[in-house]
Amino acid sequence: MTRSIFDKFQYYANLREDVARLDANPFNVVVEQVLSETEAIVNGRRTILAGTNNYLGLTFDPRCIAAGRKALEEEGTGTTGSRMANGTYAGHLALERELAEFFGLPASIVFSTGYIANLGILSTIPGASDAILLDADSHASIYDGCRLGNAEVIRFRHNDPADLDKRLRRLGDKAESALVVVEGIYSMIGDQAPLQEIVEVKRRHGAYLMVDEAHSLGVLGERGRGLVEQAGVEEDVDFIVGTFSKSLGAIGGFCVSRWQELEHARYAMRPYIFTASSSPSIIASTRVALSILREQGPELRKRLWDNAHRLYQGLKAFGFRMGPESSPVVAVTLGRSKDSALKVWHDLLDKGVYVNLVMPPASPTTECLLRCSLSAAHSAAQIDAVVDAFGALSGRILEN
Ligand code: PMP
After folding, report:
1. How far apart are the CA of 357 and the centre of ligand 1, in A?
2. What are the two backbone dihedrals, phi and then psi, of residue 165, each rounded to the nearest 5 degrees?
């Protein structure tokens, strides 16, 4: 048999075959027409979007749109260059200052995406003589950032400070320059890191701590600064990474730090240097979204959390297996059968509800998930419609 360079994709070829029997592919959903923050035409049907990360519902905010439009007209469609060459505009620097101010920290770098922010920080700050200790359920961008660098990489059990402690202890002196990495809200089942305990462990070993607040910026904390603020550990966190693609409704990423020295690392970060910077319109809408988060955050957060509790309680009442706590990410665990997971996902779509289908290896276990993520812009009636759609399929979901 001749070897093909494509042999390794057989798993995906099989998946395609399974999906071909359905009239919609969960991994290639086409939003045919956007109707609002929470609705679109998908597969020819008016559909409630219950699987976006549009937490504060700012994608259609007229103030963000006006700022984006103005920048588009005045500064053009793109910077056509890296931050390090011609791609740093006044807006990029202003957003860095505004993020630093928002978090009350001295150092800040804006990247082209959150994925790239994690690649930049994790491949550069910890070097060959350092170690990274990452939660086993970390996002792919955290794993990829580790791969791109030279540090020793050690995983600890998800949300298990005792396991982290044990692994730091084994590192001996090296623990003092080790970087511990956790997330504020984990994206798959919406659980939060036990941050106070993790801080206690990192402090004891003199290690550094990075928190990825991709899903918690604007969602947690009195001022929306994420789990770090909610847990009251702002003094103890060394790096906060986040994204503009969720609560800020655009695309981009950032890292802020209490270490001014972060600035020295900027020009050593390949993912910062070797990609184009964000378009001026994106930077402009993100700046306005951040100011809205500052001013109207509590009100938007209240709506988001009311929706989260409503959906979590509604689904829990059917007896589904779900994450440990109510959260803007609400996941229902199905069984291992890919086939029945695909069918349930498809039937939800048929009922006008889009959620994310997560299958291993993307799910944290060997089981499939139906993952909802909510928005402050969802109405109570929309949440009830999502609950009803799940309810109509509850027998099959429970059988799974
Ligand atoms: N970190 C986490 C925890 C995420 O969930 C994501 C996106 N899903 C990212 C980083 C990457 O963000 P972006 O979409 O800005 O690349």
Report:
1. 17
2. -60, -45
